[in-house]
Amino acid sequence: MLGLLFTYVSAYGGSLVALLVNPYIGFLIYVSFAILKPGLGCWAWSVPEGNYSKILAFGLLVGWAIRGAGDWRFGKGWVIILSLIGYIVWTVACAPGAMKGDVAWDMVDGQAKIVLLVVVGMTMIDSVEKLRHLAWVILVSYGYVAYELNVNYFNGFNQLQEMGFGSLDNNSMAITLVTCTGLGIFLCFSARKLWQQAIAVACIGFLVHAIMFSFSRGGMLGLLLVVGLSFYLIPKRPVHFAALIVGILVTLGTTGQEVTERFNSSFAEEGERDSSAQSRVEMWKICVRVAGENPLFGLGPDHFHVHAHEFGLAVGKEAHSTWLQLAVEIGIPGVSFLFAFFALTVVRLWPVTRSSFPVPDPFLKDIARMVIASTAGYVFTAQFVTLPGVESPYYIVLLGAGALKILSNPDLCPNGKPVTDAVTNL
Questions:
Q1: pLDDT tens column, 324-369
Q2: Per-residue three-class SS string for 242-275
Q3: Domain spans in the chain, listed from the N-terminal domain onward
Q4: pTM recorded for the entire structure
Q5: Residue 21 neighbours by CB distance under 10 Å
Q6: Is the distance from CB of 293 to CB of 95 less than 8 angstroms?
């Protein structure tokens, strides 16, 4: 009942607030709904199917438009946004040649919504506080999802392994949890108050444990990468090292035998791999061959499963690799645009993490660190599943692009402190 009340109040009330008061509030609720998936994921037993996100999108887009369509001075964030726009433009260009037009245009429609909301969100980010709000909304939303999955697990039903969450299976969902773990680590370190740190720690605990009982090898590998990169990026102070080491030891100490055995199977020799791991390798080889045969426009958006039987695979089979499957579907230029969206974010933010880089607010360094760790985790683990339509990694990159926008515009910086000389070299 509370889930139903939350959904209705947030959707309809949030849309009105976005329309009449502040569209950014509607944007934050939209991001939360993209993660919680009311009716499809959370509270599926009480919330009927509905166009809740569309209602929010209408309010925030109209409110955004009548208030001047935001601030388009993206500065050093422009190249990131242009890469994303290039991706959707190329996807549109690939759709007319697809065998099944309805399938292709459905993917275009879904991806276009993500691109539109990311661009609109970028125009509305004009302060460090808005970045802080977005980061916490993503973490708490995923923390709640992971909490529900943990409750079901301890009640004897491993929903994540058996059913996944929303429209995602256990592997895809584990990887989305991995992308949020980096946010949790650095939000914990940067939290202003003890209760905020407690929330961050709780979210991290739920996230990590859910990744463990998902039994997803890609998720486990991604978690190692995110934690290792976070360890490298954290400020070199004893309290930070101690907290991270304790977290690693607790995780290792609570990892069961089944998890360990499944993880170790990732590194087996070809003849010793289980059927799931071996089939992925075979599909990746097929992707490389087919992408080489259709390098420009591919087979069409979301068309790998349409042609899977032609490659000797089961009907409707996915490639289990975001990057290789997109190369097959929208060609090398299309997947390159999307990869650049993530990779350029890491490259542009890396200098910001250095102690010598001047920032007007220390939280901007934390933003850079959390986005780098989370984005690297996504880029790596996306090799093991097909999930270009999962929205949260795009909003995590938006945090980084928003930080670059603020650093590029002195009047947006706290206390009006310009850092343009340092930003010029990014």
A1: 999 999 999 999 999 999 999 999 999 999 888 888 888 999 999 9
A2: HHHHHHHHHHHHCCCHHHHHHHHHHHCCHHHCCH
A3: 1-67, 75-268+318-424
A4: 0.91
A5: 11
A6: no
